[in-house]
Amino acid sequence: MFTVYAIKSIKNNYVYVGLTKNLENRLARHNSGREKTTKPHRPFRLIRTENFKTWQEARNREKQLKSGYGKEFLKTLI
Question: Which of 17, 19, 34, 76 has its CA 20 to 30 A from that of 67?
Fold first, then answer.
């Protein structure tokens, strides 16, 4: 199972979309500062998860959520 997730920084408007097989571990890495891209924006809260059977399905959805349309959709969840 592959999970596409969106997290939002608690201290600013930064939203990050990613894909993982282990959501708990991945969120811990983001919040502990072990990910270069998200380190300056931590801490984070989870705002969206979607599960997929294949990596390709998950990757396609991740790309959609990273697009302008996807970012606008995620803003409605905040």
Answer: 34
